[in-house]
Amino acid sequence: MQLNELRDNMKKTIDATQRSFNSLRTGRASAALLDRITVEYYGADTPLKSLASITTPDSSTIMIQPFDKGSVSDIERAISMSDLGLTPNNDGTIVRLNIPPLTKERRKELVKTASKLAEEGKVAIRNIRRDAIDDVRKQEKNSDISEDESRDLQDDVQKITDEFTSKIDELLKVKEKDIMTV
Question: I want to staple 20 with a disulfide (CB 3.0 to 4.6 A). Which of 4, 13, 72, 117 is the partner?
Fold first, then answer.
């Protein structure tokens, strides 16, 4: 595994962690809250984004306008069954989500969830590191590289891992601050 490939894989992990953070509620309406929602539509799980246009007319409301009016009840059911803790309201053509202000307890729960998502990202980065180090050791065992080159490469892999792990920590700090801000 090349170091550039290692960086690319770790960058993808950072992006996935950022997307996970975006789907956490912060007390303000955001279309990103609904990124993880899938709706059973004609027997197939379909991302909500593919079925409707999602807008935020104000800071406490999300408006979902389905492309197919027949899917309103399916969308409403999917949101109700999700872990968002929001109750959808529909007028037959549009589903509205009112985002209530977060309580202190709910904010603390969300911070714990964000920490768990960050830890999952770190685990993914460590798994990438493990694979890269195994690859380097295999090259050394096959006599493709010397023992010194192997040690240097392993040190480089660890430095890159530390760099990306600290990026996840920074993302977590920003998200925690965002969640705890009233």
Answer: 117
